[in-house]
Batch of 3 targets.
Target 1
Amino acid sequence: QRRLVESGGGLVQAGGSLRLSCAASGLSVSEYRMGWFRQAPAKEREFVAAISRNALNSYYTDSVKGRFTISRDNAKNTVYLQMNSLKPEDTGVYYCATGNRIGHYGSPSSYNSWGQGTQVTVSS
């Protein structure tokens, strides 16, 4: 059974850091472009970051560039999102997902398997 499990979320003050993990089972992350998305209350799910299968290319939404870093450890079948200098507007549920072979890296419709999400709350 394909499964993605996110962890590492929590409550942090503005300016703080968190490291999210996405552990996969029943699939090999090395076969997929991997993405992180987030969803704030009453808002649509939005793209945060993505990383290519070989980790040579990474992509970020403008609001997190310079603060967030996506990485992968294919040997551990895990993808990470290091989040620094957190802001209250980063608050939301963060999801990881496996990417389709085709489609834009920033579109949720370009991803198939999703985790259950982990809550990140940044207080001001």
Target 2
Amino acid sequence: VRLVESGGGSVQPGDSLRLSCAGSGYSAGYYCYAWFRQAPGKEREGIASFGSDGEATYADSVKGRFTISRDNAKNTLYLQMNILNAEDTATYYCAAALSWWPQCAMSIERYKYWGQGTQVTVSS
């Protein structure tokens, strides 16, 4: 299983970015996917999850600003990030669990496969 993120960068407050996570090495199934992020000196936190049932869940810190989605044909997970602010500065990781549970709760230990991370910096 391989997950490769892309789309990070340096932006100004109020800008938007879209992260992508291309998956390979596994067959289609009923799974959970998620985006996590880790800021310097802080623990890794789950910010959005997406299940094969189409349900999305968001952390309060990003709700209303970020949207998680998935293109099954491309086996790619996305994170559209709008109205970015300095608190969104972090390394962003996509994660996959080749299993499913209700609401795909963002417990780090349940996600077995991780990308290498992509840096997002928001600064004026």
Target 3
Amino acid sequence: SVNLEESGGGSTQAGRSWRLSCAASGDIGGLYCMAWFRQSPGKERVRVASIYPKDGSTFYHFSVQGRFTISQDTSKTIAYLQMDNLKPDDTAMYYCAAVVGGFGCSAAKDVDFWGPGTQITVSS
């Protein structure tokens, strides 16, 4: 089992930057990818960004491309989401996700482990 713990949630204003962190612990030897998803009330949970520890490749949702950056620490057990030029539409609950099964981090249904979530609120 893998435990995920997010930190860094809060409220800010449009145009500003914010950073989220996700610490993974437990049976992380077979970690295939880590990702950040977000969900707003009444909407589905969607992938914002993902990273594959083996080669460092990343993916971004078109809505955050060029504004958000996902990265990992040297131990590859902490995933960061640097969010720049935030917009009110970025307001959501952000969830850290981990996949160990090798199916990828693109869809919520494929995620093996979830963090409890952390709220980001961006005001105009």
